[in-house]
């Protein structure tokens, strides 16, 4: 077994035990990248010598951090002090920022080896798509906007990678690529240094191959309760099986994934209960769009004024309020979201987690359509933690996942549930 | 009259008419700065040649922007591509970022001459204070955290300057320095590139010498309704005279300012009505602190891990949750804020504006105590627009202001009210 094949948690264990170095792991990942990158195209920036030097510096460190020696890829709309941050936009080609984004700073301080930048939909929002291909079928999208990060983790190029989620940009690619992904409670991880689209929605997320990998990153960010994990088993866990208000948009394989996950959990002893969200939740998907477009008006104003000719029309559309979102509509959306957040928290501790689709189906063919975010965007607006878990293969052999969702700030508890249910859901 | 003595709106008029150039105005401001800076100490970075070159570039421009040729100072925790951004922190001394913060980008694209960086409380939050003195009395603080920006506008060094407000960092210094200040609706101005303290609270604000100056900046940011100003007179305006839940903390001169503003407005024909906020508002000040400290936990984590020795203890306190804010407490604060935001919007259009204290009294003596933010912090959490207006002189001859407050997204309407009431309130 090559080091690149190890999960983050496994690799961290070997590094701690002294049987693996940051340098050896980074070198193995770089070899995997060199082999696969011509097909997968996950990276926008990769300097092998820089990465190896970062790894050697970690190996020389006095105090091992939580992410000690683990190669970590960064979505290319999150700033890095030692690499350009291009946002997949001609406006920022080769842009060098003077300091790391807050999330990168934390990962680096905890010993992560920042290995390179991964391709993204332009500004993690619209416009140009990533060049990245789905490692399971290069004719298909890995999803977006965290395209390169999801694909890189799925393909063994790196054990961990940062994405972001404003609509469905972390959890949907996790489903399409067959990896675990986490979108934590909004606001817990500082988004400073990541491109702004919507301050109400933008959330830093990450990918790993197991729930234990996701937990390592949550530990680095000092999540509430993260240091008191509960060793749970599926037996007796109360799971709300929630097709949600957008069920009509789920392809057969997405429906099958949810049903399969439910059956597998029930067979493992969990108490799985059909769960319908009450009426106000039916409008949360629409409210997310109002917030997204309303806040998008200000998000790209500087770019639209500074370099209009090179800014994609999609962003001029947002600045020009192409959806005609009124302040009244935004207030409706803000106030509905606030009401539903409180309501949703109230479903706990009656349930340990809500189980719901992670994507509308398999990854679409081509590069342009990165998939429908509709099974993610309402949770993003609700600010609740979501963990994507692979489940079945669809009719084309592509991965199809599900997600579990918890109450606001219930991230650590949801990780406990994920560790218990992930092996069952994966079958 | 020297050009530096012109308000932003006056200077903009002359530049438009061709009787003043960006270069001449910038040169005049630089002369004023050279004369006064030894006493006021408003700037952390100022390169006269760079500023003059920026002004000449504006003079050569084809299309005049909304802020064409107006010198604009930037609080030194907001990124600028051509000047360092030091955050008044030893961690970021001389830091060079690769691109402008979003607000700076907009101002620059609209023709503003970014003239220099102004001193701030460390990270606009805690720790080290600015060196800046109050231009009205150098033994006193100009307030914080936007210390240098408020003082620079008050002292004629620049017609316009960016500040920020997370507690009371824009409106309180406006009161202490006797200038107009605006804290717009939260989220309307993209905070990207300004240091994060609290994503729920951080708001970009600005200073000018008149409401018309404030309006220019709001125009640059394409505020809803800003292009349809109403020419109002004080006659018939419905003003809610609102001491607010923290009235007990108001010094006699703050009480006198509110009473005087109310009387002057009444004498000018406004309908001034005593107004008491209903009970849930009594807890909003406490809720703001819960959000501030709760979100501050993540805001400074990267700094605390990366360079603990040089980070002020105040920030370690926040990372270590020195106030012991629990997730439950944060949820209480978030949900209370959401409830009160909706309630507050409901007071309009019954009123045209809420009139309330801008600060607890005159600027304190010394540099350490930048004043109590308690008359600002609840409005910051409520996300509503606030405009600070100078009113009286206190017992020590220092300025004491008031503020008018509107509903969320009512910024343009509040500016209309400010233009009508400011000359009356100033007496």
From TrEMBL, chains A, B:
Gene3D superfamilies: Amidase signature (AS) domain. This is Amidase. GO terms for molecular function: catalytic activity. Belongs to the amidase family. Coiled coil: none annotated. The lineage of its organism: Bacteria, Pseudomonadati, Pseudomonadota, Alphaproteobacteria, Acetobacterales. InterPro entries: Amidase, Amidase_dom, AS_sf. Residues 25-415 form the Amidase domain.
């Amino acid at each position: 077994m090559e080091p690149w094949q190890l999960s983050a948690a496994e690799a961290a264990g070997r590094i701690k035990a002294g049987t693996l170095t940051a340098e050896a792991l980074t070198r193995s990942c770089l070899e995997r990248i060199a082999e696969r990158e011509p097909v997968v195209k996950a990276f926008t920036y990769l300097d092998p010598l820089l990465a190896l030097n970062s790894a050697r510096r970690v190996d020389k460190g006095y105090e091992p951090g939580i992410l000690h020696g683990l190669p970590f890829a960064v979505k290319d709309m999150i700033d890095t002090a030692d690499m350009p941050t291009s946002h997949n936009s001609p406006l920022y080609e080769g842009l060098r920022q003077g300091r790391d984004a807050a999330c990168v700073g934390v990962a680096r301080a905890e010993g992560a080896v920042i290995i390179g930048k991964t391709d993204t939909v332009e500004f993690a929002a619209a416009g140009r798509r990533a060049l990245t291909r789905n490692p399971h079928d290069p004719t298909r999208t890995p999803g977006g906007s965290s395209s390169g990060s999801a694909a890189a983790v799925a393909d063994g190029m790196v054990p961990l990678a940062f994405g972001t989620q404003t609509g469905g940009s972390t959890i949907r690619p996790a489903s399409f690529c067959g990896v675990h992904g986490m979108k934590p409670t909004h606001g817990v991880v500082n988004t400073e240094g990541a491109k702004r689209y919507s301050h109400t929605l933008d959330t830093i997320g990450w990918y790993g191959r197991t729930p234990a990998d996701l937990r390592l990153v949550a530990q680095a960010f000092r999540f509430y309760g993260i240091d008191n994990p509960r060793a749970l088993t599926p037996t007796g866990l109360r799971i709300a099986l929630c097709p949600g208000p957008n069920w009509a948009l789920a392809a057969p394989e997405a429906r099958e994934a949810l049903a399969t996950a439910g059956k597998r959990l029930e067979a493992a002893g969990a108490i799985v209960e059909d769960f319908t969200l009450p009426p106000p939740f039916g409008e949360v998907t629409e409210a997310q769009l109002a917030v997204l477009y309303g806040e998008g008006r200000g998000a790209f104003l500087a770019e639209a004024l500074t370099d209009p000719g090179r800014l994609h029309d999609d962003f001029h559309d947002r600045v020009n309020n192409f959806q005609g979102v009124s302040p009244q509509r935004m207030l409706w959306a803000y106030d509905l979201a606030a009401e539903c957040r409180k309501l949703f928290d109230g479903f706990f501790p009656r349930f340990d987690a809500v189980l719901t689709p992670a994507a509308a189906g398999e990854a679409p063919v081509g590069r342009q359509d990165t998939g429908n975010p509709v099974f993610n965007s309402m949770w993003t607006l609700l600010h609740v933690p979501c963990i994507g878990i692979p489940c079945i293969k669809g009719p084309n052999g592509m991965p199809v996942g599900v997600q579990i969702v918890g109450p606001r700030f219930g991230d650590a508890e949801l990780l406990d549930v994920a560790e218990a249910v992930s092996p069952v859901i994966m079958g």
